[in-house]
Design goal:
This protein folds into 2 domains: 11-108, Phosphorylase Kinase, domain 1 (2-Layer Sandwich); 114-228, Transferase(Phosphotransferase) domain 1 (Transferase(Phosphotransferase), domain 1). 35% of the residues lie in helices and 27% in strands. The protein is built from 7 helices and 12 strands. The chain has helices at 10-16, 67-81, 116-121, 124-127, 130-149, 191-204, 210-224; strands spanning 20-28, 31-39, 45-52, 55-56, 65-66, 88-95, 101-108, 114-115, 152-153, 162-167, 174-179, 186-187. Strands 1-2-3-7-6 form a 5-stranded antiparallel β-sheet, with helices on both faces.
Length: 233
Amino acid sequence: MAVAQNGESRFDYYWRQQGEWVEEPNQRRGGESGVQRLSDGNGKVLYAKRQVGHIYRSLLHPFGRPTVLRELDALNSFEQLGVRVPRIVFCGAERDPEHQWRALLVSEALDGFVELDTWHAEGARERYPQVVHERMLKDLADNLARMHLGHWQHGCLYGKHVFIKVIGEGEQARVEVALLDLEKCRRRISCQRAAGNDLRQLRRHSSLNDTEWQTLLYFYQMAFGSAVKGLGR
């Protein structure tokens, strides 16, 4: 996708792009935020999170900062930690003439990935051998452990924010897991606290059954270490 043509900025270019709303703008945090599906003109699908006046406040940013910038911080850190996340195409924020924040986060689609809850609802338990499910749970556990050992808490760890991709057929198939929607991510002093909050949230808000949950915890504890024994039960 060509950008910054005729002197316009990359921000202006992406801001004027329009596509199908996959997440209608929600009114919250003093503004609105939604997600559109775009095309890069070469057959590649992009997702653009568009925000107006959608901010968070913290000790470092008492007057407010767009939440997509916090999400960008998390995405960059996750990549360094080896946590699988979408690739960022563009991120930026600026104030309009009324001094209200406009912000954009454009990322590549996760080709071939599907939400965890959708994966189960579409019959994954019947379609794939047990070993494939175990590989999925191990890759999810490994990604979560890397995130928590880096002192990051996802903050909205629902099944709809865990994406699954199966590569290959039968018992030889590989599985990749990616995490999405990181705008509520935050750094925690205690990695154990970050782990406990996220695991309890995932337990309540995902399609994992009891057996799958215990398997996930086993792999997670192997990856994280003895510090998390008893968390998420």
